[in-house]
Amino acid sequence: MGFVDLFCAASMPVLKVLIVTAVGSFLALDSINLLGQSTRKQVNELVFFVFNPALVGSNLAKTITYESLISLWFMPVNILLTFILGSILGWVLMIIAKPPHHLKGLILGTCSAGNLGNMLLIIVPAVCKEKGTPFGDSDTCSEYGMAYASLSMAIGAVFLWSYVYNLVRVFSKDSANNQTETVQEVLKQPLLPSSESKSSDKLDGKLQVGFCFPNLEYSISMKQHWRKVSAHINLKAIFAPSTTGAIAGFVIGTIAPLRRMLIGTTAPLRVIQDSASLVGDAAVPVVTLIVGGNLLRGLKGSGISIPLVLGIAAVRYIFLPLFGILIVKGALYFGLVHPDPLYLFVLLLQFALPPAMNIGTITQLFGAGESECSVIMLWTYGLASISLTLWSTFFMWLVA
């Protein structure tokens, strides 16, 4: 299989993404305003709560079985490694560039979290439809490719909302509290002797309780610690609608009676699966339009330095893909993954994706680095048109 054939097969999906993204940017212009900020927010909520869960759930239910789920165990590990390596490279970048404190969570997030859902949902089926790919029949390739991409989206959503969400939250909170830290320390000091005696009385009481009822004291301490941890973890964000859709897809696909009722041309309740697929098919084009509209904000610029943005791009488009090749080839050598070219291609592609678009949503929630995030997304997604084409070509040659 020649390089030109592979390059054409890899470039066509990226060109399709660019065209639809450009349409989204055009519709978001102030003179057009068909996809303005308020409209994008409402449509994004529709995608988040309806389209993506339907897409993830329907594709996983159709293609995932108990046996195939066991064989795909390495994908969560692979995605976790992308986050770990991205975080390490992000720390190195921060040591070199020395960014402002409130941007550290944003930098770590964009270096560690790739667009593991939407980009794969766009690129993988489009690659399957091109001639000259090493993935065999286009229909079978599209079916399994959508399952791999849906599983990647579900796992990526869990890591994104449990890790990156808390990174941005912690650094934005630390930055906001930095100016008042000295005042708070002064206010914590005892002002009157009576308060000191009361605190010593409380300490004596706690010592007595701990001495007489050690298990009770330990239980109270554990409950207090758990409350503090629970207050800092957003469980609703972790169990996002896409994750819920993935759980439903896993249940339907792996439980044989449910699968027989919902999946297949002879299933009595197949209309439910067909309806979910019909709704989910709207996710890919709508999300691509929203990406184009969001990137338009990056043209307004911000105070973030261009070398820092290019450093993030280097992490995502040079260093992570190189580590990804070593990890996936090593896993294949030791027999940790099955030698399916499409599966290996998806695993490799997970290391070469642009940053997750939901990072912009997270920065909006905490009001830290929103304009800087827009500039990062504009540059990284602009460079992705070249990077994804080259890496996709090389990955297809590698797995062929």
UniProtKB/TrEMBL annotation:
Protein family according to the UniProt entry: Belongs to the auxin efflux carrier (TC 2.A.69.2) family.
UniProt xrefs under InterPro entries: Mem_transp_PIN-like (IPR004776), PILS1/3/4/5/7 (IPR045033)
Primary localization class, coarse: endoplasmic reticulum
Domain of life: Eukaryota
Pfam families per UniProt: Mem_trans
Record's protein name: Auxin efflux carrier family protein
Function: Involved in cellular auxin homeostasis by regulating auxin metabolism. Regulates intracellular auxin accumulation at the endoplasmic reticulum and thus auxin availability for nuclear auxin signaling.
Membrane-topology descriptor: Multi-pass membrane protein
Cellular compartments per GO CC: endoplasmic reticulum membrane
Segments crossing the lipid bilayer: 12-34, 70-94, 106-127, 147-168, 233-256, 276-296, 308-336, 342-366, 378-399
Organism this protein belongs to: Deinandra increscens subsp. villosa
